[in-house]
Amino acid sequence: MKHWRIEQVAWDRFDPSKFDPDVVPLVKAAAVVERNGDDYARYLNHVFADDPDFQRATDNWAVEEVQHGDTLGRWAELADPGWDYAAAFERYRAGYRINTEASASIRGSRTGELIARCIVETGTSSYYTALAEATEEPVLRQVCKLIAADEYRHFKLFYDHMKRYLAREDLSFLQRLRVAAGRIGETEDDELAFAFHCSNDRPGIRYEHGRCATAYMGTAMGFYRYRHIERGMGMVFKAVGLEPRGRLSSVAARGAWRVLCWRRDRFRASQRRKPEGGANLAQAA
Ligand SMILES: [Fe+2]
Ligand SMILES: [Fe+2]
Questions:
Q1: Distance 284 CA to ligand 2 centre (A)
Q2: What's 13's DSSP letter?
Q3: Who contacts 261 (Cβ-Cβ below 8 Å, separation ≥6)?
Q4: What are phi and psi of 204, to 5 degrees?
Q5: How many C-alpha atoms does 267 have within 13 Å on its Cβ side?
Q6: What is the pLDDT of residues 105-154, one digit of tens each?
Q7: C-alpha span between 90 and 273 (Å, rounded)
Q8: Is the Cβ–Cβ distance between 92 and 198 less than 8 Å?
Q9: Residue 219: which of 89, 69, 14, 30 has the closest Cα?
Q10: Separation of 57 CA from ligand 2 center, angstroms?
Q11: pLDDT digits (tens, 9 = 90+) for 34-50
């Protein structure tokens, strides 16, 4: 049961004078990652093979994630009429595969798997909220708000199932923290960087992780304000079993904000040193 449909978006309000061209390569990359939700559902269905309730919830979740991809893809095709969402997704899928046949979670336990899913939904919920508030283009703003609301519901979905498994598997606080920290650390791995490559570089241009991650992160990190990190930290704290709005959460949010600003500035400096990098390379090639 979807909470909204792609046809409900006010596509006729699209205003090409209202968006920063730097945002388009990121929307393209996000579209192909979201579209891959089907594969994650297959993986989760294997990991939770004897849990039909969770499997049903996962199948519904994947329908929403695929709709996120299709909606972002449609917006990117409006913003860049020469871009082909379906072709970009095929390219991504051909080069980035997760093991959908896994019989056990790569996080070591089902609780761990669900904590990792909570972290992913925290990231997407924060990201689309930040992007909605950073853009003045009315359609992108509406799309990002709708998606952010879904992502927050997804967090709650995985959190509720995580609590159920935690009662059975009894993971320690440190085990939960390790899974969460590990998943946060994967943000700059290939999933987004390779999606950036597939959706922005012309065929024939070699995938370079550093160049693509720099181009993606340098722009994406610029959307965030402290309030987004503060809220996201509260969700991470909740996922690992800590008080989400306590003093420790505030201290952690301030630390994370400082790290984000430092990383963002480093990515931007690196982008300036290589003016032909990222999306510009795709256009210049
Ligand atoms: Fe999503
Ligand atoms: Fe989600």
A1: 34
A2: G
A3: none
A4: 100, -20
A5: 21
A6: 999 999 999 999 999 999 999 999 999 999 999 999 999 999 999 999 99
A7: 32
A8: yes
A9: 30
A10: 12
A11: 999 999 999 999 999 99
Burial pattern 102-140, b for ≥16 Cβ within 10 A else e, equals: eeebebebbbbbbbbbbbbbbbbbbbbbbbbbbbebebb
Ligand 1 ion local residues (Cβ < 5 A) = 34, 65, 68
Residue 14 identity = F
Place of tokens 């896994």: 102
Predicted local confidence at residue 278, as pLDDT: 44
- Give dist(CA 148, CA 132) in Å, integer: 9
Instruction: Give the integer Cα–Cα distance in Å for 121 and 143.
Output: 17
Closest ligand to Cα 68: 1
Q: How far, in Å, CA of 184 to CA of 178, rounded?
A: 10
pLDDT category at 87 given cuts 50, 70, 90 is very high
Give the residue among 262, 281, 270 at the shortest CA–CA distance from 210: 270
pTM above 0.85, yes or no: yes
Residue 239 has pLDDT above 50, yes or no: yes
